[in-house]
Amino acid sequence: MISRTSPGVAALVLLLAGGCAVQPLPHGGVVERAESPRTEQTVVPSAQEVVLQALALIGVPYRYGGSSPDTGLDCSGLVRHVVAKAAGLKLPGDAKAISEVGTPLQFSDLQPGDLVFFNTLRRPYSHVGIYLGDQRFIHAPSTGGVVEIVNMTQRYWQQRYDGARRLPI
Questions:
Q1: Which residues are catalytic?
Q2: Considering the domain 43-166 in this protein, what is its CATH number?
Q3: In this structure, which of 47, 72, 116, 132 has its CB flanked by the most CB atoms within 10 Å?
């Protein structure tokens, strides 16, 4: 699975999975460091599990109304499935309802495992994803797509960003 992601995301996965610092290399590999000077925010264990569960679903086909990796996922189905499996928290049915759970966040306060919301259907909070760090998030995009990682700095996502929430996990 990691081969489908960028070196930065691969480093994030290894950091979250092993709890050790990693250094991305130009060719895409990583080198572990014994000492870990934590300059970034520490990820709490349940948020770490949310990220790892989400990353395990990369490549699952999009399906409108989908709530199972076996049959396909839409954006809210992805988030509900991951959060239930990782943290045992049952979320409401759609992105708008999910946007009312948890604590609102400023963009600068985002941490891996937080939820990010976008206006993709000409209505606020119509799309949701899971923040991974490094301005990237994972989501189930649309018909014909698969669960994927995208960069929030892309113009499309910048123009549609509605906000973020931290779940009570």
A1: 75, 127, 139
A2: 3.90.1720.10
A3: 132
